[in-house]
């Protein structure tokens, strides 16, 4: 499950309730998103459901550090990722009441030079402007969950969307989004196509290798536009993607950068470097608890 915690704290696994949770977790104690996700899992005839707040001991830094390093295996080895795209917290659930007649595409009939045409009208930025603008996909941790999963079903505010290496589709266009409106970046398309090869340790072509290097730049750009509650999580939240890219390229990873082409990667800048009060957003000094990365890395 990919979900937003939001301002609320959902039911959590802790050192103190671990023994109780190993015995049972009462269904009624779970927030609506978790209960909906269980319903979807059962309808898909899948036995196990992984939820971060119930599968990582939340008051144990050691367990968190251990599990955070395994996100590429958790999401990458999953059967399917259930994304609560339209929910800003775990109480809002997966399902929405919709007027399905209003779902795109809108059909317009035109007459031109005596002939009648039937045109389907869609927004050009359907992926970015519709799906990826949902509350869930504005969260930094969710970026790698989406990128690592072999297939994802997104429960959006208007319709359900499907993503896998072969197809991006939705309820109103079950055969796939037309190329003109599927505005997923070319690098992300390459990433999804080579992901099975990376996992099987197949040898990539020179073209695929070049595209993967470009993919990291695109990933960092998209990731840093997302919101992150705990700033110290900046590198852990994208570590799963970095782990697979490093494995595929055989390159050394250094605080969000790669040894290959390091000088070029150091040429980063902060777009909005001041807060709403006009003060610099970066502090001159960092305490150990604030530390995210070396000052020369974008993650700082």
Automatic annotation (TrEMBL):
Signal peptide: none annotated. It comes from the Eukaryota. Residues 1-145 form the Heterokaryon incompatibility domain. It holds the Pfam family HET. This is Heterokaryon incompatibility domain-containing protein. It comes from Baudoinia panamericana (strain UAMH 10762) (Angels' share fungus).
